[in-house]
Design brief:
This protein folds into 2 domains: 122 residues, no CATH class; 104 residues, GMP Synthetase, Chain A, domain 3, CATH 3.30.300. The protein is built from 4 helices and 12 strands; from the N terminus they run E-E-H-E-E-H-E-E-E-E-H-E-E-H-E-E. It has a 6-stranded mixed beta sheet. A hairpin with a 2-residue loop joins strand 9 and strand 10. The radius of gyration is 20 Å and the shape is elongated. The two termini are 27 Å apart.
Length: 238
């Protein structure tokens, strides 16, 4: 996931719409991207969003419509999408990633919701962001950590992963550290089918025990085998 953008998915999903009057707020254009915005959103925020979308694949020649509004402290990025997208679970998972990306790249870590809308900007589906958290890089290991753990916890884990050879094989490895109650959760993106492999699960169980002993002073650790969106497929307890 190292600087991996999912905004390209919008190229075939997001469309423009025509209005005879304008109940959607003021409009600012960024190439073929039109961003509507209402009171409560600053022009600086509109510019950050519009320029980010433009620089990350949206400006492909076809008109795309977005509306930016705020509800309390939550940014609502409302996009007009093709029919049926709001019912497609794979695309919904991707939009969760995009919401997280916009949060940290555009809105300083604030909460973002993406609203999938029809041509009248009526919300069809609300997609909440995945809280990946802050990112640390340890060689080819991307380690995200949530606000439920400390940066020191994350750095201790990252250094342990390097010392244990976790980074030795080719390709980027994506992991996340979070915590529920008193249990650390080490989430790891794995190849398809690994969550069903009993031998791999046994290795994961041993690895969770090592992390507990050498990183977190014997505190309980769960190892979560996840898909590429950090959605848990299998929980392995030490």
């Amino acid at each position: 996931m190292k600087k991996r953008t999912y905004l390209f998915i919008f190229l075939s999903l997001v469309i423009g719409f025509l209005v005879s009057c304008n109940p959607y707020g003021k409009k600012k254009e960024f190439g073929n991207i039109e961003v509507y915005y209402k009171k409560g959103v600053s022009i600086e925020e509109v510019d950050k969003l519009g320029n980010y979308l433009k620089d990350n694949g949206w400006n492909d020649g076809e008109t795309k419509t977005v509306q930016l509004v705020k509800s309390g402290d939550i940014y609502l990025v409302r996009v007009v999408v093709k029919e049926g997208i709001d019912q497609d679970q794979e695309y919904i998972s991707l939009f969760k990633v995009v919401a997280n990306e916009l949060s940290y790249e555009v809105f300083d870590g604030k909460t973002v919701e993406i609203h999938l809308c029809d041509k009248n900007l009526k919300t069809l589906k609300v997609v909440e962001m995945l809280n990946y958290g802050q990112l640390l890089i340890f060689d080819n290991v991307e380690l995200y950590y949530t606000d439920k753990v400390t940066k020191q916890d994350a750095e201790k884990l990252g250094n342990f992963l390097l010392e244990s050879g976790f980074n030795n094989s080719e390709g980027t490895k994506s992991v996340q550290l979070t915590k529920e109650d008193k249990t650390y959760q080490f989430k790891m993106v794995v190849m398809e089918g690994y969550d069903q492999d009993e031998y791999y699960q046994e290795i994961a169980r041993d690895f969770a025990a090592y992390i507990s002993e050498y990183v977190f002073d014997g505190k309980p650790v769960e190892l979560h085998l996840c898909n590429e969106y950090f959605e848990t497929l299998k929980v392995v307890k030490m």
